[in-house]
Specification:
The structure holds two protein chains of two kinds. Chain A has no helices and nine strands. Chain A is mainly β. In chain A, the strands form two sheets. In chain A, strands 1-9-8-3-4 form a five-stranded mixed sheet, with no helix packed on it. Chain A has a four-stranded antiparallel sheet with strand order 2-7-6-5, with no helix packed on it. The termini of chain A are far apart. Chain B is mainly β. Chains A and B meet through β3 and β4 of A and β4, β5, β9 and β10 of B.
Chain lengths: 109, 117
């Protein structure tokens, strides 16, 4: 079973920042947090991952709390193409990803 | 880089027939590939882990005799749905883990839509 909980859906205005929360209160010390997104009827797309430091790449930023029990994915300037289901994943077993229910992000014009 | 392809992208078959789905890592070697199934409006469910040159390991509740997995090379894994039935209709997605990768990220294929009539 997935070790993460996410809100089922969120709305965001186009051009604004989208902040997607994830709770992973049982995360172990050596487990990474990964974020993927899935646009309708496509395979998931890797976004970002982190261990304990905040991370940023060309797609997004990842903020992990100091106790590592939660994290937030930030899309700085959401566009309509960012409408997707966003999955926060904590690796539970070597190599394996167990997907939770994710957050459906609706970016509105 | 890190592109994973699947073939076919969609398939329709009659009940009782077998269907093979291919998963290829196009520009990297993958010692480990994974197979997921996704029903409409649901999340991805891990079915099995496929290791090159060894038997696949299946998640609890997944019938290994029904979902045959072969990982014959570092760039190819196949999933065969044997004696398919309408309840096997689903979106099948594979992913590949970069061999020697440090961070365990997986790269996903575009998925295969299976419809069993």
């Amino acid at each position: 079973d997935a070790k993460t909980t996410q809100p089922p859906s969120m709305d965001c205005a186009e051009g604004r920042a989208a902040n997607l929360p994830c709770n992973h209160s049982t995360i172990s010390g050596n487990e990474y947090v990964y974020w993927y997104r899935q646009i309708h009827s496509q395979g998931p797309q890797y976004i970002i991952h982190g261990l304990k430091n905040n991370e940023t790449n060309e797609m997004a930023s990842l903020i992990i709390t100091e106790d590592r029990k939660s994290s937030t994915l930030i899309l700085p300037h959401a566009t309509l193409r960012d409408t997707a289901v966003y999955y926060c994943i904590v690796r539970e077993d070597f190599n394996k990803f167990y997907f939770g229910s994710g957050t459906k992000l609706n970016v509105k014009p | 880089g890190a592109v994973v392809s699947q073939h076919p992208s969609w398939v329709i078959c009659k009940s009782g027939t077998s269907v093979k789905i291919e998963c290829r890592s196009l520009d990297f070697q993958a010692t480990t590939m994974f197979w997921y199934r996704q029903f409409p409006k649901q999340s991805l469910m891990l079915m099995a882990t496929s290791n090159e040159g060894s038997k696949a390991t299946y998640e609890q509740g997944v019938e290994k005799d029904k979902f045959l997995i072969n990982h014959a090379s570092l760039t190819l894994s196949t999933l065969t749905v044997t004696s398919a039935h309408p309840e096997d209709s689903s979106f099948y997605i594979c992913s590949a883990r970069l061999a020697g990768g440090l961070y365990n990220e997986q790269f996903f294929g575009p998925g295969t839509r299976l419809t069993v009539l």
